Amino acid sequence: MDFRTPELDQLTATIPDAYFELSAEDARDRYFADTRMLDGKQLAHNRFRTNPRTMVDHLLDQLALTGSEGWLDLGCGNGFVAEQIRPHLADGRIVGLDIAPGVLNAARTRMAGVATSCEWIEGSAEELSMFADGDFDRVTAIYMMHYVPDIDACLREVARVLAPGGRFILTTDRPDSMVEMFDVHFTVMKQMDAPRHLFKATPKARISLTNGHDQLAAHFTQVDLRTWQDQLRFSAVGPFLDFYAAHNYCCAASQPGDGLEPGFFTELRERVGEHVQTVIDRDGYFAVTKFTGSFICQ
Q1: What is the phi-psi region of residue 55: left when phi exceeds 0, alpha when psi lies from -120 to 50, beta otherwise?
Q2: Which site in 57, 165, 176, 292 is 20 to 30 Å from 202, CA atoms measured?
Q3: Is the pLDDT of residue 184 over 90?
Q4: Alpha-carbon dihedral sign for residues 179, 184, 187, 189
Q5: Strand order through the sheet with 117-122
Q6: Which of 10-14, 222-226, 259-263 has the highest mean pLDDT?
């Protein structure tokens, strides 16, 4: 399944080279203070995807579980992934680690009562000293490594806690993933004469499918890349705007009080909605194309 087109490739020029860097404090206290952002993204991906295989389907292939492994999920969030992986680790061990207590509590609640051994730890992915060398057969970092302040320190710790013969799966995107949404976003921001500091790409550019290999190869002897595509198709503007807002309006941690009035976001949402509605009226849906994948490290 290949969604790439020459027209889509041309849109990549609209994504700035500069990218936001979200602090650990912002991630913990603002972006992931509760589960709303994660819930919105997860719901949209399940409801509007066109790839019949989910991200978890791909992840299960890469994990190659036998049912008794010890698994450390870095940035486990609300437990959405752990809930689906758990039946494949009926006799195993799951440890979820996240810096944000709000989403961590949601994971704890979601998984309460399951027979698989589960532990939920509040902490930073850079600091895994509570775990022994070779403590885990599998470690995952699913769309979260770009939030880690010191990526190299985190990867060094992952290599230490990974057992011989184990696997580390890092899932991330290409920088031009979801380019249709970013094209509309930056087009509208130009029309609004928005502050120049908002014209940046998402923090995922820090470690993406295009630059991640070299960062990982410094710590792992084998680094393989597996990619796949998906396309979310929205036939109504409301669900798309909910998805758009779940990315904090593509402005990283931007919010009222950062030199932006609440009316800025109201106008931004309205104008983006008008653009998207025009495409829906013309084509029947508004597409958001995902170029994504995982590095499998050993």
Answers
A1: alpha
A2: 57
A3: yes
A4: negative
A5: 117-122, 93-98, 70-74, 136-142, 162-173, 286-297, 223-234
A6: 222-226
- In 123-258, DSSP assigns E strands to 136-142, 162-173, 223-234
Structure tokens at 287: 């597409």
What's the pLDDT tens digit per position in 127-176? 999 999 999 999 999 999 998 999 999 999 999 999 999 999 999 999 99
Residue 207's contacts (CB-CB under 8 Å, 6 or more residues apart) are: 145, 146, 151, 170, 172, 215
In the chain, pLDDT over 70 holds for what percent of residues? 96
Mean pLDDT calculated for residue range 120-127? 96
Contact 248, 203 (CB under 8 A): no
Q: Dihedrals φ, ψ of 11, to 5°?
A: -70, -20
- Does residue 139 contact residue 161 with C-beta atoms inside 8 Å? yes
Query: Which domains, from first to last, does the chain contain?
Result: 6-297 (3.40.50.150)
Q: Six-digit token pair at 217?
A: 């190869």
In the 8-state DSSP scheme, what is residue 235? Answer: S
